[in-house]
């Protein structure tokens, strides 16, 4: 399994809660491709748990950077 698979399958609610509600941070170390895949997964998590469009989720995440 890849990092993004674990985030999506096992930790999506936790990721959303800590990033959106608790003001948490996420740091991704690795190659650019993997980091991009993780970012897309976090965007999908925000779409799902935040009841927002994929575009709005991407915009919200861009403000966290």
Fold and architecture overview:
InterPro entries: FNR_nucleotide-bd (IPR039261), NOS (IPR050607). Keywords: Calmodulin-binding, FAD, Flavoprotein, FMN, Heme, Iron, Metal-binding, NADP, Oxidoreductase. It is an enzyme of class 1 (oxidoreductase). It comes from Cirrhinus mrigala. Belongs to the NOS family. The protein has a single domain (3-64), classed as 3-Layer(aba) Sandwich (Rossmann fold), CATH 3.40.50.80. The chain starts with a helix and ends with a helix. The chain contains 4 helices and no strands. The mean pLDDT is 94. The protein has helices at residues 3-10, 12-21, 32-49, 54-64. It has 65 residues and is mostly helical. Helix 2 crosses helix 3.
Topology:
Layout: H1 3-10, H2 12-21, H3 32-49, H4 54-64
The overall number of domains is 1
Order of helices and strands: HHHH
Distance between the termini: 26 Å
Annotated CATH homologous superfamily: Nucleotide-binding domain of ferredoxin-NADP reductase (FNR) module
- CATH level-3 fold name: Rossmann fold
Q: Spans of 5+ residues with little confidence (pLDDT < 50)?
A: none
Hey, roughly how much beta strand do the residues contain?
Answer: under 5%
Q: Count of helices? A: 4
What is the class in the CATH system?
Answer: Alpha Beta
